[in-house]
Amino acid sequence: MKLLNEQDKLNYKNVWVLAEFTPEGDVHGVSFELLGVAREIASDLGCEVWAVAPVSEITPASDALIRYGADKILAIEDERFKYFNDELECNVLDRLVRKYRPEILLGAATSAGRALMPRLASKLHCGLTADCTELNTDRETGELLQTRPAFGGNIMATIRSGNFRPQMATIRPKVMKALRADYARKGSIIRETVENGDSVNIKEVIEAVTDIQNSVNLNGANVIVSGGRAMKGPEGFKLIERLAERLGGAVGASRAAVDNGWISYPHQVGQTGQTVQADLYIACGISGQIQHLIGMQSCKTIVAIDTDDTTPMMQMADIAIKGDLFEVIPEIIKILEKKGINKGEN
Ligand SMILES: Cc1cc2nc3c(=O)[nH]c(=O)nc-3n(C[C@H](O)[C@H](O)[C@H](O)COP(=O)(O)OP(=O)(O)OC[C@H]3O[C@@H](n4cnc5c(N)ncnc54)[C@H](O)[C@@H]3O)c2cc1C
Fold first, then answer.
1. How many angstroms is it from 270 CA to the middle of ligand 1?
2. I need a surface site. Which of 153, 278, 318, 341 has the fewest CB within 10 A?
3. What is the block-wise mean pLDDT of the chain (346 residues), using blocks of 10 residues?
4. Atom of ligand 1 nearest to the CA of 257
């Protein structure tokens, strides 16, 4: 691994965001969140934001990358990018990073990003800070400050990888805020192609299947009602489901509930589950250990129901209801019924 000196570092410029696409060619929402934070970093460093777009075909939908903050789109069009292809993408990016020399390369901590970014970091002989929850720049050195939970989430560590370029990090979905779309923004497209030397024949995608059973839309939910260990079993979760249904929301859970087998893993909120950004998060019998808070602390309004008002969740909640949830939740449902509130309407 070669340490770069100050002179070498000057050869690296711009912030790259690795954009993700659906097979239909639409930009994945997390890419807009990454562009938002990339813009802040670029304005600190006085450089451009490039969105890297490995796609089967650049469509007008890709213009959204400009509207949400990119100055340039680095388009790599190839049929094989219709479905995520980490080996091919990694080889192409390895070549393009060496050609254009970005100072910073950001990817999403999605399953695609988690497969691709470590592979690429290893090829480029760079470090990678995974699952960041905050990114800043050092005002004096311009280095990227990459903050993420460490030691099982008990501390937040800020990591620098200033001696290597690019400085690489992945960011969890729903942690950063996307900018508002700016329809007046202008940008340009740089076109690159897959070259013979990039090709790999290790695998071929024959069919892509959506797992409907496990697709719990916590990420897109405006209201989430979550249950913890206090639910005591799958029966207890029926109460959570009733409240969530009344409010037109989704059901979340703590890891304790998932580990006990009361509800399936896709419902888990937290460090090793999903990160959510709902308008309303109701935590029922969840003590609020740091590993859970990391996944829901950006929700706008947090309501906690617990018999113990000293727990971290009760302390951080906007509305803390001290009481037995088996009494409190039916009361809330009764009030909603009385007011005619159904599926969050009214
Ligand atoms: C590496 C690592 C990763 C982790 N990742 C996650 C993660 O992604 N998500 C996650 O959630 N956890 C995660 N954890 C586990 C986390 O540390 C906690 O153990 C877990 O969140 C606790 O779940 P809980 O709040 O439901 O249970 P508890 O901490 O046991 O809290 C139960 C709460 O219910 C209250 N209560 C009990 N009875 C009632 C009642 N009748 N009415 C009202 N309140 C009642 C209690 O007062 C208590 O506050 C992780 C841990 C590690 C080490």
1. 10
2. 318
3. 74 95 84 97 97 90 92 94 89 96 95 93 94 93 92 84 92 89 94 88 75 65 96 95 93 96 92 90 97 92 98 97 97 92 66
4. 26
